[in-house]
Each structure stands twice: as structure tokens, then as C-alpha cells.
Amino acid sequence: MRRRRTLTAVVAALGIALAGLTSGTAQARETATDDATALAPNFKAPFACGEKWTYSHHSAEVRRALDFVRSDGGTTAGSAVTASAAGTATRHSQPSGAGNYIVIDHGGGWQTYYFHLQAFSVPSGAQVAQGQQIGTTGSTGNSSGAHQHYEQLLNGVGQNIHINGAALPYPPVYGQQHLTSDNCGGGGETNFSTWGSGVNVRADAFLNSPVVGTIGGPTRVFVECQKEGDTVNAEGYTNHWWSKLRDQGGFISNIYIDDPAAKLPGVPIC
Questions:
Q1: Any idea where the M23ase beta-sheet core domain is (predicted)?
Q2: Which of 13, 36, 211, 236 gives the lowest tally of CB atoms within 10 Å of its CB?
Q3: What are phi and psi for residue 228, nearest 5 degrees?
Q4: Is 19 helix (H, G, I), strand (E, B) or coil?
């Protein structure tokens, strides 16, 4: 009888120890997750400063992605896709799935994914700043319409998306939740919007300089500096000042910068 009691006591003690171990493991996992979240970059919305987009998550979606479309009256297709945190951008293509997409490595195991891009705005391997345009919104790959597919991953595992440190909900349809971007960039450049469509970006501030790109429609841009160049007459305006655009790698006439001043305030001379 004494032996049975001793055995029962040992089993009970073992059970308590195992329960404590399980509880400790769960607590450790929870602490590790909390620590990882605390160490995450301060992610911003992956679209231009001041824009409002609605978002949703559907059950067939990979990992913990959210899909975004504009809800502020702007056109989704062609809208700027911006880096939600600084890092190293890599270009990828998967015609049967993600289409044209960019992965940004933020360090510490953190990455963000941007799928279905209409076009890339940075080369592979580029060091990008938070708020910098990395592409334009499209519908490449397995997509039924223009939208921005966005993910945050830690060590290759999809995470619930946080913007400005706060977790976003996961609505099943568009229109229930909206997000206004405060991803206004930084550095020494000044943030402006362009207007007009089909605006040529030139290698220098002269009309005979090679065209290095085109701005399809209103776009948020970062002006590094401005300089005097050829006089441009367009849309009823005349201006000889040109802006050097950081992300587009060239100059446009200040006529197409949405500001009433011919010479932009607060922007240095090139």
C-alpha cells in the first residue's frame, strides 16, 4: 500500500512538472511573439501620403495578406506603391501568381511584399527609404483587377499587419475599413504632388534632354532640388524652373508640380 501511494505521488509530481513546462513554453512563445512585434519596424501604409484606401482579406489569400484599393476618388491602377519601411528592394516576377512584385528586406528577419505591380520604380538591390515609390499599382499575374496585395513577414512567416504599431482588422470585403496614409517619406527631399497626364521626365532641365520616364497621372513625388532651364509653355502657364525628382531619376517642369509658386518654396537649388 505504501508503494502505491509513493508511485501515485511521483506521477502527480511529474504531472505538475509537465504542466509547468507546457505553461512555461506557451509563455515563452507569447513573450517571443511580443518581443518580435516590439522589434518590428514602424511600418507605414504602402501607398502615398494623404491617400485613403479600403482593404480586405479573403479566405484563399496567401499568408496574412491584405488587398488595398483606393476609396478617395482616385484611380487605383497606376497609383504609387511606397515602401512601408526602409530597406533593400528586390524585383521579382511570377506571371502565374504574384505577377510583378517587390520584396523589401528591412533587417532583423522582417520583409514586406508588394504584388501585382503594373511597373517597377526602382532597380533590384536598391536601398529605399520609407515613403519612396517602388512601383505602381496594377493587376499583373493572377489578379482580377488592379489592387495592391501587401504582406508583412518575419523569418518567412506571414504576420498580422501592423501600421504605425497598431494591428489592422481583417474585413472580408472592401468598404468596411479604410486607411489614410501618413507615409510621407523623409530625408532632405520635399514632398509634392504632380498633376496632368503623360508628363515626360527628362535627364536635365532642357526640352532637348533625353526622356528617361513618364508620369502617367497625378503622383506623389520627392523633389531633391530645382534649377532654371528651358522655358516651358503648357496648360496656360509659363515657367522656366524645373524640379529634380528623386524616384523618377530626372527633371520635370515646375508647371506640373501642384504648387502655385513658379519657384517651389523650401526646395534648394541644384
A1: 75-157
A2: 236
A3: -85, 145
A4: helix
Do residues 80 and 125 make contact, with C-beta atoms less than 8 angstroms apart?
no
Between the CA of residue 163 and those of 37, 99, 156, 168, 204, what are the distances in Å?
Answer: 12, 25, 19, 7, 37
Q: How many Cβ atoms from other residues are within 10 Å of residue 15's Cβ?
A: 10
Amino acid at 200: N
Three-state DSSP at 258 gives: coil
Pairing relationship of beta strands 211-215 and 148-154 according to DSSP bridges: unpaired
Residues for the chain: how many in total?
Answer: 270
Question: What are the two backbone dihedrals, phi and then psi, of residue 24, each rounded to the nearest 5 degrees?
Answer: -65, -40
Cα 235 to Cα 196: distance, rounded to the nearest angstrom: 9
- Residue 234's H or E segment, with its range, is strand 220-234
Which cell is 163 given?
Answer: 501600421
- Chain centroid to Cα 11, Å, comes to 55
What are 187's three cell numbers? Answer: 530625408
**Of 56, 67, 53, 37, nearest to 170 (Cα)?**
56
- The owner of cell 506603391 is 81
- C-beta neighbour count of 258 within 10 angstroms: 12
Instruction: Report helix, strand or coil for 43.
Output: coil
147: Cβ contacts below 8 Å, ≥ 6 apart:
67, 68, 69, 76, 116, 137, 139
pLDDT in tens, 53-109: 999 998 877 789 999 999 999 899 999 899 998 899 999 999 999 999 999 999 999
CA pair distance 119, 251, nearest whole angstrom? 20
